[in-house]
Specification:
Blueprint lengths: L21 E5 L5 E4 L6 H13 L5 E3 L5 E8 L5 E7 H51 L2 E8 L4 E7 L13 H12 L2 H10 L5 H4 L5 E7 L5 E11 L5 E10 L2 H8 L1
Antiparallel strand pairs: 1-2, 1-5, 3-4, 4-5, 6-7, 6-10, 8-9, 9-10
Length: 259
Amino acid sequence: IDIYPIDLAEDHENWEFMPGEVYYLTDATGRLLYTSNTSHTDDTIECVNRLIESDGDKMIQRDEKGRMAFVYTYVSDEGWRGIITIPIMSIIKDTIMISVVYALVMMALVVFLFLLFRKNKKNEQDKAVKEKIIDAMASTYYMICHLNIPEDSYCVLMETDEEYKNALKKSKASEMIEELCDNFVKEPYQGGIKEFLDLDTIDERLSYLNYATYEYESKKQGFLRVFIIKLGSDENGKVTDVLLLNQKIDEERVKHLEK
């Protein structure tokens, strides 16, 4: 007979047993009505009687197979008694398994945090290297810009002169170049540098070269050298991206130019 008191288990179909766990159901007189152990014997009856006699006073007793087990007893209002025995080793094994899983999860977390730390440290080191490179370039260059020729756009990568900022607010690369040439280049050199930086003809100067230079005299910084360095081309070989750099010229070169 498969009988479960409604107060003990509302859904018998989903009842899950631990390894070695056995459920017993008796009526008010102690008669065994049901056991989850399908191969029960006289030992089963003897075990149930012993468990009933203890009346729940002992939480740990031997089950019908002689194993030390936790004993849980439930008595309904009608006197029906539900008894569950769970071998201690089953609980210990589950606890060990949980501990092992927990330990593995913690190890995985530690490894993840370690890798994250190394990645962040590497990022910090890379950032420090980039900052050193920029600092080193700042001692040589006044300005570095990336120009996209087809889009007539630009991106300022570095500028060390506050006076350049207004010119670098222009929306188009051609407008920015025009502003720089008019305001920062001495008049005798303005025509030459505008022709050199003309976006429509840069491709001609970089057809067979990776870079080109032009030396001029600025209004405040003295003699400078501007570089255009080829960064990219389209499928037809036409230059699409260049790097624009303004470099300080050493004293020896300045003396040569002044002659």
